[in-house]
Amino acid sequence: MFYYHRFESHKNAMKIAAEQRKNATDRAAHLCQFFDLPEADAAFLRHAATQIFNNRRTLQWSYVYGYFLAMDKTKDASKKKAEQNLFEYLQEDLEKHTNYLSELYEQPLLAEGPDPSTVELTDSVPDAADNTIGGPDNEAD
Q1: Of 4, 74, 132, 137, which is least surrounded by CB within 10 A?
Q2: How far apart are CA 24 and CA 26, in angstroms?
C-alpha cells in the first residue's frame, strides 16, 4: 500500500504542477511587464514549471519501479539492498529538490525581482531527475 499511496500522492501533485505550467506564461509576462524585462529573462519561470511537472511524473512512476525493485527475487540480497538503498536515496533527493522548487515557484514575485536561488535551483533540479532515472541502472552494472 505504501507504493500505491505515494504513486497517488504524486499523481495529485501533478495536477497542481500542470496548473503551474499553465500559469507560467502569464507569470512570466507579468514579471516582464512589471520590471520592463525582455521575455528571455523570465524564461526560468516556464522552465521551472515544466521541470516541476516532469519531476512529479518521474516521482509518480518511480514508486512503480520501487515496488517491483522491492519484489525482485532474482538478485542476491546484498546487491538488491544496495540497489534499493541507492534508488530510495535518489528518489528522496529528487522529491526534496522538487518540493523546494515548487515552494519557490509559488512564492509571490517580489518587488525587487525573482529570488536568485529560484533561477539556480531551476538549473540544478534536472540533474537530480536524471540521477533518479539513470542512477540505479548505471550502478547495478
Answers
A1: 74
A2: 5
